[in-house]
Design brief:
2 helices
């Protein structure tokens, strides 16, 4: 009996790590108005962040299979960056 309850407790503990992280952090920085005006619809602007590595804005896309970072794009399909891309 004790062995069974230990297995159940271990399973619950292991499965609790599979939960999704909380989203919509209240301490997230707001995007500049210019970025909000340029951004195309159907992108998660609440998760958009500026990456210092490339100077572009990226957002979290939660698809049916995986969650990944995608570049924030304009309605014309161009990435929204604070500096020109290196050639």
């Amino acid at each position: 009996m004790k062995k069974c309850s230990m297995m159940v407790a271990g399973s619950i503990l292991a499965l609790s790590a599979c939960g999704a992280p909380p989203s919509g952090s209240s301490d997230a920085p707001a995007l500049p108005d210019a970025v909000l005006e340029l951004a195309a619809p159907n992108q998660d602007l609440s998760s958009a962040r500026l990456r210092p590595e490339d100077g572009c804005y990226w957002y979290v896309h939660e698809g049916p299979v995986e969650t990944t970072l995608l570049p924030l794009r304009t309605t014309g399909g161009n990435p929204i960056c604070t500096r020109a891309a290196a050639t």
